[in-house]
What we know:
CATH class: Alpha Beta
Order of helices and strands: EHEEEEHEHHHHH
Strand order of the largest sheet: 2-3-1-4-5-6
Distance between the termini: 63 Å
CATH superfamily: Pyruvate-ferredoxin oxidoreductase, PFOR, domain III
CATH topology: Pyruvate-ferredoxin Oxidoreductase, domain 3
Number of helices: 7
Number of domains: 1
Number of strands: 6
Amino acid sequence: MRAVRFHGRGGQGAKTASRILGTAAYLEGFVAQDSPIYGAERRGAPVAAFTRIDTGAIRERGMILSPALVVIADDTLLDAPSARVLEGVREATSLFVNSVLPADQLRMQFGIQGRLTTLDVTGMGLQHMGKSNALSAPIGAVAARLLGLHAENLRTAIQHELTDLGLAEQLIAQNQDLAQSCYEAVPVVPVSDAAAGIVDQPSLWTPRYDPPSVEPRSMC
C-alpha cells in the first residue's frame, strides 16, 4: 500500500488534491481511499488529508502516521510545530515541498530526513493563472508523478473533481494545464518500497490486575 499525507493551509486545496490523487489512482485500476482532517476550520489554518492506494481492499482508516510520501503545499508549515508535517518521516520516506528553495537547503535548515524534492508551484500558479492559491491540481499532479501515475488519468481526475466543485470549464482547463506543467517539471524522487511496506501499528496497553487483598464482608 502507498500511503500519502498532504499538508497545507485552509483554502490551499490539500483536501481536493488528495481526492484528485485518489481518483487518478482509481482510474488506473487501483483501490483508493482519501479523507481529510481539520483543526481550526478557517482559511490559513494547518490542515491535512490522507490518500491510501493499493491493489486490493484497504481496511485501514484514519490518520497516516507512517507515510510513504508527504506532500507539503506551504513551506511555512515546516516552521509550525502544531502542523507536525515531518511526523513519521523516515529515511525511506519521500517528501515534496512547494518552495522556491532547493531541496538541499531545506534539508539542512530543518534537518529533514527522507528523499526530498521541491518545486515552486506557487510561482507557476501565478504564471499560468495569475493567482497563488490555485494549488489543489498542481500538488495533486506532483503526487501523481512521484507515484508513477499516468498524466492522462490525472487530467481526467482533475476534470471530475473540479467539475464536482462547480468550477467553469475554462478554469478547469487552466488547472489541467498548470497541473501538466508541474507534473513534467517536478524533480522525481522514488517512492521507496521500504516506505510503502511500513504499516502503522497502534501501541496497545494491557492493564494489569492485582489480586484482591481484602476479603469481602459477609452480607449475613
